[in-house]
Amino acid sequence: MTALGLYIHIPWCPTRCIYCDFNTYIEANQSLKERYHVALLKEIRETGIATGHPPLNTIFLGGGTPTTLNPNQMLEIIDTVAESFTLHAEAEITTESNPATLSLDYLRAIRRGGINRLSMGVQSFRQEELSLLSRLHDVPTVHHAVEWARQAEFDNLSLDLIFNLPYQTLSQWEYNLQQAINLNPDHLSIYSLILEAGTPMQRQVTQGQLPQPDDDVSADMYEATMTMLAESGFEQYEISNWAKRDIGNASFQPASVRRTEVSTPKLASAHNLIYWRNQSYLGLGAGAFGTYNQVRRANLKRPHDYIKRIETGTGLGMAQDEKTVEAIDRPTAMMEHIMLGLRLTKEGVSATEFETRFEVNLADHYQTAIDYGRSNGLLEWIEAGDDQRLRLTPSGYLLANRVIVQFIE
Amino acid sequence: MNQEKIRNFCIIAHIDHGKSTLADRLLQSTGTISEREMQAQVLDSMDLEREKGVTIKASAVRMGYTAQNGETYQFNLIDTPGHVDFTYEVSRAIAACEGAILVVDATQGIEAQTLANLYLALDYNLEIIAVVNKVDLQSAQPDDVAQEIEDLIGLDAIDVLPVSAKTGIGVETLLEAVVERVPPPQGNLDEPFRALIFDSHYDAYKGVIAYVRVMDGQLGKQDMVHLFATERTVEPLEIGVFRPMMKSTDSLQAGEVGYIATGLKTIRDVRVGDTVALDNNKDAIESLAGYEPVKPMVYAGFYPTEAEDYKLLKDALEKLQLNDASLIYEPETSQALGFGFRVGFLGLFHMEIIQERLEREYDLDLLATAPSVEYQILKTDGEKIIIDNPADMPEPTYIDTISEPWMHLSVYTPADYIGGVMEISTRRRGEMIKMEYLDETRVLIEFNLPLSEMIIDYYDNLKSITKGYASMDYKFGDYRASDLVKLEVLVNKEPVDALSVIVHREQSYPRGQKLVSRLKKVIPRQMFVVPIQAAVGKKVISRANIKAYRKDVTAKCYGGDISRKKKLLQNQAKAKKRMKMLGKVEVPQEAFMTVLRLSEE
Ligand SMILES: Nc1nc2c(ncn2[C@@H]2O[C@H](COP(=O)(O)OP(=O)(O)OP(=O)(O)O)[C@@H](O)[C@H]2O)c(=O)[nH]1
Ligand code: SF4
Ligand SMILES: [Mg+2]
Q1: Considering Cα of B215, then B217, then B223, then B228, what sign does the dihedral take?
Q2: Residue A219 is nearest to which of B550, B558, B561, comparing CB atoms?
Q3: Interior CA angle at B323 toward B317 and B325, to 5°?
Q4: CATH code of the domain containing A398
Q5: pTM of the prediction?
Q6: Are residues A261 and A362 in the same domain?
Q7: Distance (Å) from the alpha carbon of A405 to chain B's nearest alpha carbon
């Protein structure tokens, strides 16, 4: 389990979208932003020292909107990480972005500075939906941003889309998806809208100002997505993620998965694969989560609190929120391993790896749960060389929770 | 004590007319309770009584009263409940007294239980002191109510005492009236000891406490006593009187009211209505006329929502029964609900109280099936059976006739609401027997009405249709053959025993439809399509389908926030554990609750 990823949280957005419950704040106060930046660099350095400068496979800048940083700040972050850790030569370095914050110059600058994967929050190609979501960008901006990204030599570009929006029909969603396909991205992350508690959108739905999105419609859209993307040369490697079909392998592919029919495609998000493969990652910045050395922890959420603790602290977890610190014992790790691994629709959970890691036989230990899944046509065993892998069947994708719940003791 | 100085009386009235509050004033004026100990309705000592402001159990208390003539009297007062479900408590109390204070609310006038309880008292030849209460209120009409008492009951309006149990107005006069008008007991001190057990409760240290009214003779604290009905001889741990806490004494004499702490551990060993005598001359005496045993009127299944609480429920019922002999139960098994008990109650209010006590005092989560009555079935082979659980109903082809209990119902209502009362009663197959104007504005309507219809929501309907002005009283009438059918609910083609009900054929259709549409709302979607049907015999009368589950998946774990997703799934797993399986269908507990609760409507 040598793979290690690093998540860095940038908690700023130009405006707030009405469905959003992320840990993000409107970037009004430039001096707070600057102090946060300084604190973040310190946390990176301190964490590097505390962990002994370990090898890093991925860096992921998430938010919020990391592209609210100016290029210098972003590059300073990457450089500091490179100085504090042992960055792999082929490390995947992603930043999330909002099309409205991008320009050709900006993209060129960050690409030159080392960012090699761009994830763009597009969400929709229909203006009325973008407005409904109170997204900052409009449709033409998306087209420009994609064009610039390619000009800036981003050869790994991912688009985020959301379906089952209020009022959205199946054909409207298909239109959105087709527009995305037409832009020829390397990767797509596609989510059904979730009405998170406390968001303005959730409130509007409860109060009847917006229609309640329907689960059946959502299922129809999801199935349409699977079909359309398969026909357009995408491979679904995770419940919500697709990558361009590719004969090669993703970086850092475990040996057991190489060149088999269960291979995750090369352009899959290496960083997110770390989560799903239940490997280690560090989380830095306000509210960021990490799972490292069998301990999960999150930092304090509010930038102010975070900065104060970083300014005076040292070592690993100096800004951690004590309430979130959780030692992951073996039963918990097993459960999480399945919960996460079953989301990987190609590679699933390897019986061999499971047994090596937990000294428990997957098939025997979870016999009832596996029988339930298989008898309902939601789970399957698949041969991969000498290994047996447990994974969801396509009809299981939409019912993943039902299946996973069976594994919880 | 010289019997000439003893006065035994109870307070009776319609519910909420102020019996317990009046008892407070009597306790206070006689100095039985100090100002410090005083609280409103002090005799309502159960938590639930205090919270609901309702007397559930009668309580006895002894007071000393020094009258204007300078003599000191021993008053034994029994406060009684007003709710119709607990009428038996009133009749027991009455048998231990020579007089009754009949309380009538001056703002309400005579109501159903005013008359019902008065008739009980008259049956026992008690001296009645009528009182109009709450005269402190603006809306009180003491003179009109006194006149009503004269017109309806035949007591002289002049003798009706105006009081306010709240402020104490008229209480002195009432105490004097008790001395003057309630006759002293007529027991014979020289005869062998003989006492009536008129109530009991269970005390963790002293066992079953028998409340006794001594008829003749005298009991010393060392005497061995014999209980006739249960043929038990016991050496009392203690004898004493209620002041209102138990206070031991050396003796209990003819005419007095007190208690015997038997030390017995089960309430069945001490039967209310039984006679107690001294063990050494038990053969010399004749037992007293007891009471008719109370019979439950409605039955329901009680099931713990957590199967492992079965034992707790069993213990709790046992404990409750120690203080409530009218509570009967036996184990019962339901396919849908698992192990539980069939419990018999005196009425819906009694059921509600028991359920609340189990939930509160014993911290149990309960599921109660729809209340049912006792049906008599004559089978085609000539066999007669009695059932109180729809699940036990034989196939229609084996039934010759099925009979159900009908009640004799008296409704007192302002004349304005006659139409509404008639409507809700005939809709429930009620037959009017007579209608009588009590005065220009008030009417007594009597019906025969099936109990099964009455327990659905008759009382609530009556109250709402008459804006709360009507009151009602009922007693068992007779059993009558009716066109009754078992309405079954099938989930995924399998009958759900806990949801079946016996209904009149004409009502099977609307009831079936209601149940189906409610179930459809509360049963979550499953992996497959689930048909829900209501059927009578083999005939399906209503149906609906629950669509198959299509989507149950959470979006990404944002930024590695695995804990949050895990919580979600763990909660889902927890909810799943609480599911009951109906065949292959997972049904949350709450679904049963909702449907069962609503099926009462
Ligand atoms: N204003 C006023 N209120 C009274 C009087 N007597 C009783 N009440 C109120 O009437 C309500 C019912 O009184 P209780 O003494 O509990 O009546 P009860 O007859 O014992 O009721 P049950 O035991 O439930 O049948 C309470 O809210 C009392 O405070 C009175 O003389 N004047
Ligand atoms: S851009 Fe993203 S993080 Fe920012 S407010 Fe909108 S949804 Fe939230
Ligand atoms: Mg009372």
Answers
A1: negative
A2: B550
A3: 80
A4: 1.10.10.920
A5: 0.69
A6: no
A7: 5
